[in-house]
Amino acid sequence: MGGGIYLGLLTDFCVASEDAYFQMPLAQSLGEPGGHTMIEPWLLMNWHRTMDWLLLAPTLSAAEALEWGLLNKVVPRDDLENTVEEMARKIAQIPMTTSMAVKNSVKRAYELMGMRVHLQVSHILTNMVGAASDVQERRAQLMQSGLKPRDFVGRDEAPDDGDSPSSAPRV
């Protein structure tokens, strides 16, 4: 969820248990662009899914995250540790120099596709966005609500039952 998803996407491999779920609620909750730190969703998914992920903040099941390109594989929770250990054993058999060359080659290819420049521009945009009054207002709403960012997303989508005044905040 949110910043936690970035930690998983930073890795060379991302394996999840079947009961895991993923969401990027930053634009909807904190008013932040969301695709601006560490790793970019556009590297992992297509244009339309990237816009969906960043602007609509859907909660994806592990199977959906795999389909969207966020994961390498999904396994039963009981198999997670053994699966990851087996992957690590296979990687450990590769000479370190070869492993480093593969990683460097892949990173350089992404840099040639514009990743470094994009990260620099994203940093500038994130700073500009953070100073905007509407974004600061959104963050204040989140803080006042007492909700977690993932719960703040979609809070206005509940149908009005007509019993509460329209000015009452929805939580």
Give a brief description.
It is built from 9 helices and 4 strands, in the order αββααβαβααααα. It has 171 residues and is mainly alpha-helical.
Q: How do the strands and helices of this protein lay out in sequence?
A:
Elements: H1 3-9, E1 15-17, E2 21-22, H2 26-29, H3 47-56, E3 60-61, H4 62-68, E4 73-75, H5 80-92, H6 96-112, H7 115-131, H8 133-145, H9 149-152
Parallel strand pairs: 1-4
Antiparallel strand pairs: 2-3
Walk me through this protein's architecture.
By secondary structure, this protein is mostly helical. The chain has a single domain (3-149), classed as 2-enoyl-CoA Hydratase, Chain A, domain 1. Helices cover 54% and strands 6% of the residues. It is built from nine helices and four strands; from the N terminus they run αββααβαβααααα. The chain has helices at 3-9, 26-29, 47-56, 62-68, 80-92, 96-112, 115-131, 133-145, 149-152; strands at residues 15-17, 21-22, 60-61, 73-75. The strands form two sheets. Strands 1-4 form a two-stranded parallel sheet. A two-stranded antiparallel ribbon has the order 2-3. The protein is globular and about 55 Å long.
CATH topology: 2-enoyl-CoA Hydratase, Chain A, domain 1
Question: Structural class, please?
Answer: mainly alpha
Lateral strand order in the biggest sheet: 1-4
* CATH level 1 class label: Alpha Beta
Second CATH tier, the architecture: Alpha-Beta Complex
Number of domains: 1
Write the H/E string, N to C. Answer: HEEHHEHEHHHHH
Percentage of residues assigned to helices = 40-55%
Overall pLDDT score: 82
> What is the 3D shape?
globular
Range of strand content:
5-15%
